[in-house]
Structure formats: structure tokens, C-alpha cells
Write a sequence for this structure.
């Protein structure tokens, strides 16, 4: 099973479950920016503890997963391992911070490989990548953010980016992205 196959499979399962979700991190930056190889899928989810049996049912046949482990989604990150490919799928519970809730509210509906998908917006991918770089500095995070800026420059909501960059104290990094001081990743 390829990453693409796994993505489609996970999207189908999430869509069937009715769980509120969006695709984020590397696969989202691949959608909006310059694609690169990645070895996992990352989803932000929002569901009540009563939905745990439904999630378990949707993913139990082809994934290494235990119902008790699904309940730990409230202790993020939570990982499922696809038993067909050994690829990892991370599920992150939507945070309660204003920016986390804004990302959930702004999620974008797209079609990925023929499957309906909710995905983070280009602006939120950029900001999230800059946040992750602050937590764990990495040329990969910065390169992903620069790749989205390079591809989406004309379409970006610059007011939204500026406002949230200031709020999240990311303004200096955001200003460096279009100057190519931070270079996009190479494919």
C-alpha cells in the first residue's frame, strides 16, 4: 500500500464515520505547496468520547489499534499503524486555543485522488509549520512553509497571515518566507 492509497483509505473511513477532521502537516503542505516525500499522515480530529467505538470500528480491520488507545486521543498525539504497509497515521485532537479552533473553522473541502477531504487552508499550513519549527526547529518545517508561500503567493490572505503571525509571535519568520531567505524544500 502506498501513501496515496493509505490517504484515500483513511479519508473514506473518516468520511463514513462523520467525525470532524482535517488533513494537516506534510500532506497539507504537499497539497498547497511543493510536494515532498513523507512517511505518515496527520489528521486533526474533533469528536466526543462517545464516538470512540465508531472510530475503533472504522479502523480496526486493517490497522493496529486498540479501543483503549483510541480513548487516549485526548492525550495527543495518537497513532494508528496500518498493518498492510506499516505506515503511521497520527490523529491529533483539535486544541482549545483560539488558533486551533480557527484552523478547524477554516478547514477547506477538496477532492484528493477522487475522495472528498477536509484539509487545512494554505495560510494555516504556513502558520502551523512556523509554530512547529518553534517547537522543534527544522529546515523541513521552514522549507514546507516556504514552498506553500512560493506556490500560493497571489492567493494567500495576507491580512489573515499577518494578524495570526503577530498573535502567535511568528511575524519575523513569516516576513522571511517571501524573501527566499528561507528556501522552499526541494522535491
Amino acid at each position: 500500500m502506498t501513501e496515496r492509497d493509505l490517504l484515500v483509505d483513511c479519508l473514506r473511513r473518516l468520511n463514513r464515520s462523520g467525525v470532524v477532521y482535517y488533513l494537516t502537516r506534510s500532506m497539507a503542505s504537499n497539497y498547497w505547496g511543493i510536494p515532498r516525500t513523507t512517511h505518515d499522515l496527520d489528521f486533526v480530529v474533533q469528536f466526543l468520547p462517545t464516538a470512540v467505538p465508531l472510530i475503533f470500528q472504522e479502523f480496526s480491520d486493517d490497522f493496529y489499534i486498540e479501543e483503549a488507545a483510541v480513548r487516549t486521543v485526548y492525550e495527543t498525539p495518537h497513532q494508528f499503524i496500518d498493518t498492510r504497509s506499516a505506515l503511521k497515521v497520527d490523529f491529533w485532537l483539535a486544541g482549545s486555543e483560539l488558533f486551533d479552533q480557527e484552523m478547524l473553522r477554516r478547514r477547506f473541502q477538496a477532492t484528493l485522488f477522487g475522495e472528498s477531504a477536509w484539509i487545512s487552508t494554505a495560510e494555516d499550513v504556513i502558520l502551523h509549520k512556523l509554530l512547529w519549527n518553534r517547537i522543534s526547529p527544522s529546515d523541513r518545517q521552514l522549507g514546507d512553509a516556504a514552498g506553500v508561500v512560493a506556490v500560493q503567493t497571489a492567493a494567500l490572505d495576507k491580512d489573515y497571515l499577518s494578524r495570526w503571525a503577530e498573535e502567535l509571535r511568528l511575524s519575523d519568520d513569516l516576513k522571511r518566507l517571501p524573501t527566499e531567505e528561507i528556501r522552499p524544500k526541494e522535491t
Notes: The mean pLDDT is 85.
